[in-house]
Amino acid sequence: MIAPPDRENGAPSPFGAPPRHEGHPPHLRPVGIVSYGFYVPRYRIRTETIAQVWGHDGPQTAANLNVRQKSVPGPDEDVATISVEATRQAIDRVGFDPRRVGAIYVGSESHPYAVKPTGTILAAAIGAGPELTAADFEFACKAGTAAMQTAMGLVRSSMVDTALVVAADTSQGAPRNALEYSASAGGAAFLIGSEDIIASLNHTVSFTTDTPDFWRREGQKYPSHGERFTGRPAFFRHVKACAERMMAAMESTPDDYQHAVFHQPNGKFPVNIAKQLGFTMDQIQTGLLAPKIGNTYSAAAPLGLAAVLDIAAPGDRVFVTGYGSGAGSDAFDITVTDAIVDYRKKKSRTVEEHLAKTVDLDYSTYAKYRGKIILGD
Amino acid sequence: MGVPRFWREQPHRYRLEGTRCTNCDRVYFPPRWVCPVCRRESVGKMERHKMDGTGTVVASTVVHDPAPGFEDQVPYAVAIIELDEGCRLTTQVSDVADPHDVVPGMRVKSAFRRIQSDGASGVIYYGTKFVPLVEQGSTPS
């Protein structure tokens, strides 16, 4: 495969040094996750139900993608409502005063408005602001992790007390398209601050190129993609390069991590890339949600991280690598702190419990809920 | 619904903000700025009060002939809910497999949802609906 050359190993990194390494400015504050929340709509459609409509082999498709079913947003749900539900869990769990939030960033590729921020709806719904900055992020499936990097910078440099980052999507897949089997909905919210941290964000690096593997033009209802081009030159190249750079920066190996979470456009790619990088199934099992809910796009890796935070022990290290088409990858090195023990005493639903309550849909109801039926008016 | 009216009502539509009479401690939703019990005694003594969002179904019905904008959701459940603070409101109950499952006595909690929109290009009106309350709290040890 001929691809544009990557930055050569050994070339100076533009990302700065991780904390505790030589060259890290000592005046910067620690930064990490103070609380987290998540939301996945209750409705599900099974892979076999979709396959039956289009004459595909259901069990074979489910096995090929490693996606048994996907989540479907209800007719009254969108990225704003999902963001609010995920955020309310995060702030209610620790009794956080929403007026302390200085920045709200919502990462999604399915914001309800083309022009008008989702972040302001979220701020009003949780009672944050008006003294805050807000913006919506878009970078295919990695809008949420890009937002998290921005929040890290603002908190670490003391520009804001606490930042709220939400990754949420109600992703679109055209009828009969391969995407229809995976494009699903969900969201995760993180309060990023420098006090009472339950998981320390040690370092982040990214790997970004102009690779047109998946896109949606202005005004188009459904995205287009480069079929098999979305694999090797896109997902695999970027996630692998980004993950390798993170381990080089942290001088770590896969053995140093108890958990790893990768972006999951289906249930197969994350397993494959984990294997290529030297991670085991045990390390990725907890955060691998695609087989049960499909590809929640911006929320995929963040929801996986939430599932890991539900069960991780103090001192556990978590390796998170998101991916967004277009294309780029963001990696995070995270250490769970002792504060997670007291945090868990503040009872709240877990990802596992939340995903257990479902309502199954048939294809016609799914098509109606997703606006796939053309009405005569 | 006009955009300015919707914007004015955001606190109670988005956050279930009602009012509390500090004279008699009664809670009102939607917000009242004079307590109908204490009357002039309450003037200037009404405070904003955010409802907890949990409550119980008092009466319910299933709508087959929908209001404009709700056609895709038929049949859907509408119920009178008594909030745990004591006041009652009428609301749609969403996320149920069968709307007939919504019966008096059922425990519910508030959820932030899309209510309506002014066509495909108009403003989207968000607000509060109710969904079944799933008792949470089993966290892994």
> Total helix count of chain A?
13
Any idea of the CATH topology of one domain in chain B? OB fold (Dihydrolipoamide Acetyltransferase, E2P)
- The CATH topology of chain A turns out to be Peroxisomal Thiolase, Chain A, domain 1
Termini separation of chain B comes to 49 Å
CATH class type of chain A:
Alpha Beta
First-last Cα distance of chain A? 50 Å
The share of residues in extended strands of chain A comes to 15-25%
Class from secondary-structure proportions of chain B:
mainly beta
The whole-angstrom Rg of chain A is 20 Å
Under the CATH scheme, the architecture of chain A is 3-Layer(aba) Sandwich
**Largest beta sheet: strand ordering of chain A:** 5-4-6-7-1-8-13-12-11
What is the residue-mean pLDDT of chain B, rounded to a whole number? 92
Oligomer: heterodimer
| Portion in helices of chain B | under 10%
| CATH architect. name of one domain in chain B | Beta Barrel
Keywords:
heterodimer, A: 377 residues, alpha/beta, Peroxisomal Thiolase, Chain A, domain 1, nine-stranded mixed β-sheet, three-stranded mixed β-sheet, 13 helices, 33% helix, B: 141 residues, mainly beta, OB fold (Dihydrolipoamide Acetyltransferase, E2P), five-stranded antiparallel β-sheet, 40% strand, globular
Please provide a written account of the structure:
The complex is a heterodimer of chains A (377) and B (141). Chain A has one domain (32-369): Thiolase/Chalcone synthase (Peroxisomal Thiolase, Chain A, domain 1, 3-Layer(aba) Sandwich), CATH 3.40.47.10. Helices cover 33% and strands 22% of the residues of chain A. Chain A has helices at 47-54, 58-65, 79-94, 118-126, 143-156, 231-250, 269-277, 281-284, 290-293, 300-311, 339-345, 351-356, 363-369; strands at residues 32-39, 43-46, 69-72, 101-107, 133-137, 162-170, 185-193, 199-208, 214-215, 224-225, 259-262, 317-324, 328-336, 359-360. Chain B has a domain at 52-132: OB fold (Dihydrolipoamide Acetyltransferase, E2P) (Beta Barrel), CATH 2.40.50. Chain B has two helices and eight strands, in the order H-H-E-E-E-E-E-E-E-E. Chain B has helices at 3-8, 10-15; strands at residues 17-21, 27-28, 46-50, 54-63, 76-83, 88-93, 107-117, 124-132. Classes of the chains: A alpha/beta (377), B mainly beta (141).
